[in-house]
Amino acid sequence: MLPAAPEAPSPTKHRLVFLALAAAALAGVLVLAWARPLDAWAQREVEAGFQRALASFAAARGLNAVLSAVQSASVNVGVGVGASVHPGAVLEPLDDLVEQLSTLLLAATVSFGLQRLLIELLATWPVNLALSLAGLAWLALAWTGRPLPRWLPRLALFLLCLRLAVPLMALGGEAIHRAVLAGDYQAAQAQLAQEPLPAAAPARGSPPSLAERVRRWWADGTDVARQVEQLKARADALVAQMVRLIAVFALQTVVWPLAFLLLGWFLLQKLLD
């Protein structure tokens, strides 16, 4: 006699397994929501990005002040009748790029600040309570076998995405920075922090003002053409680093958040269909 075929699992067993897995998943989500381990981690990563953007913004504003001082300085040139020229005008394109960089860095700083604020707001007890009630109601109706209202799964998934989207986006952005962008950022930031003005002769007494350092640098030079070439070479080196810095912050604070939101919206629509 042939052995009897193993009995197929009954629909009831499948349903109980599904409900157990759903209950475990809901418990894990509620622990994340109320205990806030993900929020604390995301806050640290956002703070690191905020400090990077703030440091780069301060360096860019300092560089802008130096470039403005160099551009406004004049040099007397005696050709028959004395005349004055403004050799620092060669830095005007660089100055325009620095202003654009400053605008982007300010926007990046605001973006990190908004992420930090949203993490705090979406971790408050009303949001956690609404998510808990929606999830428990969904699980209770599924457990008793009653028909689910069409709006209940949509509400629960929406609250889940609302609660966890910003921390996950922040953690993903920082992971991209560390894996891909950190080296470019450090190299560009080091170049940006350097003053474009070559060092002048040291002064006695108190440190000179920026305008005084610029004036003395022009006065100490005997070859204006060589000084202009030095400025142009320094400007060319800075342009590449500033473009790299723009790309770093644009990717982390503009491209990645938009891509994350679009992907999240696509997945949410698929789950609700």
Pick out its properties:
273 residues; mainly alpha; two-stranded antiparallel ribbon; 7 helices; 4% strand; disordered N terminus
The string of secondary-structure elements, in order, is: HHEEHHHHH
The termini sit apart by: 49 Å
The largest sheet, given as strand count, sense and whether it forms a barrel, is: 2 strands, antiparallel
Our count of helices gives 7
How many individual domains?
A: 1
Helical amount among residues, as a percent range? over 70%
- Tell me the total number of β-strands: 2
Specify Rg, calculated over alpha carbons. 30 Å
| Structure classification | mainly alpha
What ranges have pLDDT less than 50 throughout 5 or more consecutive residues? Answer: 1-5, 77-83, 199-206
Mean of pLDDT: 80
Regarding quaternary structure, what we see is: single chain
> What spatial form do the alpha-carbon principal axes imply?
elongated
Provide the β-strand percentage band. under 5%
Side-by-side strand order of the widest sheet = 1-2
Describe this structure in words.
This protein is mainly alpha-helical and 273 residues long. The protein has one domain (48-72, 86-196, 207-272). Helices cover 78% and strands 4% of the residues. It is built from seven helices and two strands, in the order ααββααααα. It has helices at residues 11-35, 37-72, 92-121, 125-144, 151-192, 210-220, 224-272, and strands spanning 75-79, 81-85. Strands 1-2 form a two-stranded antiparallel sheet. Helix 2 (37-72) runs antiparallel to helix 3 and helix 3 (92-121) runs parallel beside helix 7 (224-272). The longest helix is centred in the C-terminal third of the chain and has 49 residues, at 224-272. It is elongated, with a radius of gyration of 30 Å. Residues 1-5, 77-83 and 199-206 have low confidence and may be disordered.
